[in-house]
Specification:
This protein is mainly alpha-helical and 128 residues long. The chain contains 4 helices and no strands.
Length: 128
């Protein structure tokens, strides 16, 4: 779990009681790396619905920052085309199903993007 900023088990302390009963599948590919994705899923279904939009927008903001930083530092480094993809902020409230679909589209089968998403969620919970 060296690729995660915070041990996911510490997130349990910051997860409020579950308030919905929805199923997320977007991070399931990380199970093979023994990352406890259920902790993230429990967080998603324990926050108020309006925060789902805020969480997505936080991830988009971090993605845009990373893209800008990489383009400034590019030099001779080859950048994977999937990193150049753009995502848009959501301005209306979304539900769990929509957030899961946005995450699935964002990840697109990339373990890098799954880990990026996990780190963004950790940063959303524990801002620095």
């Amino acid at each position: 779990m060296n690729c995660l900023k915070v041990n996911p088990n510490l997130l349990i302390k910051r997860t409020p009681p579950l308030i919905r009963n929805n199923i997320y599948t977007s991070l399931d590919s990380l199970k093979e790396y023994n990352i406890p994705v259920s902790i993230y899923y429990n967080y998603f279904i324990s926050i108020e619905k309006y925060k789902l939009k805020n969480l997505w927008n936080h991830i988009v903001k971090k993605w845009m920052y990373m893209k800008r930083h990489l383009s400034e530092q590019k030099g001779d480094v080859t950048i994977d085309a999937s990193i150049l993809e753009s995502y848009h902020h959501v301005h209306l409230n979304i539900d769990d199903e929509e957030l899961n679909n946005l995450f699935i589209q964002f990840i697109g089968g990339s373990d890098f993007k799954s880990l990026f998403l996990c780190n963004c969620v950790q940063n959303f919970i524990y801002p620095k």
